[in-house]
Amino acid sequence: MKGMNTMTNSKEMISASISIYDQDNHICDSAMQTLWEKNLKEGADGFFIGGSVGECFLLTTEERIHMFELASQYVNRTRVYAHVGAIGTDIAIDMARAARSCGITHIASTPPFYFAFSTKEIAHYYYDLAQAADAPILYYDIPSSTHENLDTEDPEIREMLKSGVIGAVKHTNLQSYRMKRIKAINPDIKIMGGFESRMIPMLNYNCDGFIGSTFNFMLPQYQKIIEMYGSPSKTNLYRAISDSTDILQVLLECGLPASIKYILSRQGIEAGTVRRPLLPLSGTAKNRIDTVLTQKLIYH
User: Is the pTM above the cut of 0.90?
Assistant: First the structure.
């Protein structure tokens, strides 16, 4: 497949896609395709469609399915992950079936949230989703947003992980050691790091790859970090990690989706702005981003 990493210490590097809107606030197909071509040219191993930075819960179900259909043209060239997370099982199933029907084989989902579901209810959400999709699911573990924790000590969660319905975990979780516990329960589960700032701890635990939103504009910098991780000298590695984390910190403070869209616009892709209640960047925020990129974006 084009875009697949070929370095000796290769890790699967998946770009978490933003959602680009036109002037009428509809998905802009041409801009999305331009972004994906850029990702592939820079060496991305695939796309994660409709995740957090993609403003998933600000899109209608129809828009999310449209994004899957649009991205499906790449399934013969690279890996495409369709995030179908929803509070209701039936809604997630409808999106998963739509993604599968257009050729996408990698289905991902956050756990259902808001109603303080029991771990048994969460496990059965994934059982139902995997059965409907006829494929194992990537569990999108992001407790800072869902307030649902993938507790490897819970018997319902352990049974779910053993069962085969979970094929991968997107570990957007500060508890890096948990990936070792997941692997101990089921070594066949692929672990994908979800925090770019936690790349070194995740590499230390021998993760299978990363899914990152900042890969949209600084994938070469992260590829260099992985390359340097396998080299004897760590001086340049630590600098690259520090610089990348400094960039990410500014973006998080300014608003991650809006910041990435602004940076992509600087790079020639008209990425527009975000949907309310997310707010567009202020002039001050843009100046902060310009400054940190000038100082810290070394490899591009």
Answer: yes
What backbone torsions phi and psi does residue 12 show, to the nearest 5 degrees? Answer: -65, 120
Binned at pLDDT 50, 70 and 90, residue 1 comes out as low
Please give the tally of structural domains in the chain: 1
C-alpha distance from residue 37 to each of 23, 62, 140, 168, 243 (Å): 22, 24, 25, 25, 26
Is 294 a member of any domain? no
Contact 22/273 with Cβ under 8 angstroms? no
112 occurs within a structural domain: yes
> Which domain, by its residues, includes 95?
12-220
pLDDT (tens digit, 9 = 90+) per residue, 26-51? 999 999 999 999 999 999 999 999 99
- Adjacent-strand bridge partners of 14: 46, 211
Q: Which residues contact 76 (CB under 8 A, 6 or more apart)?
A: 1
User: How many residues belong to the chain?
Assistant: 300
Residue 270 falls inside a structural domain: no
